[in-house]
Write a structure and sequence with these properties.
By secondary structure, this protein is of the alpha/beta class. The chain has a single domain (13-154), classed as Rossmann fold (3-Layer(aba) Sandwich). It is 24% helix and 29% strand. The chain contains 4 helices and 9 strands. Helix 3 (108-118) links the parallel strand 5 (96-104) and strand 6 (124-132). The two termini are 24 Å apart. The structure holds xanthosine-5'-monophosphate and magnesium ion. Xanthosine-5'-monophosphate (XMP) binds at residues 46, 71-72, 78, 101-110, 154-156, 160-162.
Length: 182
């Protein structure tokens, strides 16, 4: 049943599951020649459900770590200021890293994270974003793995929140503008 605060379902559970399996297969191929397991870095909190499903669908052995950044507060627009709230615990020098993010929007958050990780001299850094809003890009960011390109609407569910709500919805839906314009 559609949550009262949503105007529509953008991606159903089934569509997400199918695409996550495809992304995992693409990653398995990309990692086939690697000598050591890649490190998956989930960007908290929005990617927690995606990374959990993704690594279960992956055949490749991988290590997992998390970082948390904040650029939003309770607003639906980026402030442009990125803050590290929690850093990874792993040394990534010489390692293959894949950053797992829920959504690529302006690109400001991911540009910051990718620059930070690259400065630590990993062997490679790839980016996987479940969702991409290309119309919103302000800084260039290249993602090797994209789940879905979506229109410029605020979406929630499957880990994504608005003011910490809706993360547990198993599908991704479009929030009614009245909910965030109050
Ligand atoms: P930037 O603009 O830096 O933003 O690419 C990426 C982060 O912004 C959040 N974001 C959203 N969160 N629904 C959400 O729940 C959205 O439609 C949305 N657009 C951007 C998200 O936390 C992401 O990590
Ligand atoms: Mg958020």
């Amino acid at each position: 049943m559609l949550h009262d605060d949503l105007k529509s379902v953008l991606l159903t559970e089934e569509e997400i599951r199918t695409r996550v399996a495809e992304l995992a297969a693409m990653m398995d191929s990309a990692c086939a020649a690697a000598e050591q397991p890649p490190l998956m870095i989930g960007v908290l909190k929005g990617s927690f459900m995606f990374i959990a499903d993704l690594i279960r669908a992956l055949k490749t052995e991988c290590a997992v770590d998390f970082m948390a950044v904040s650029s939003y507060g309770a607003k639906s627009e980026t402030s442009g200021q990125v803050r590290i709230l929690k850093d990874i615990g792993e040394n990534i020098e010489g390692r293959d890293v894949i950053v797992i993010e829920d959504i690529l929007d302006s690109g400001i958050t991911l540009r910051y994270i990718l620059d930070l990780l690259n400065a630590r001299r990993p062997k490679s850094v790839k980016l996987c974003a479940l969702l991409d809003k290309p119309a919103r890009r302000k800084v260039p960011v290249e993602a090797q793995f994209i789940g879905f390109s979506i229109p410029d609407e605020f979406v929630v569910g499957y880990g994504l929140d608005y003011a910490e709500k809706y993360r547990g919805l198993p599908y991704i839906g479009v929030l009614k503008p009245s909910v965030y314009m109050e």
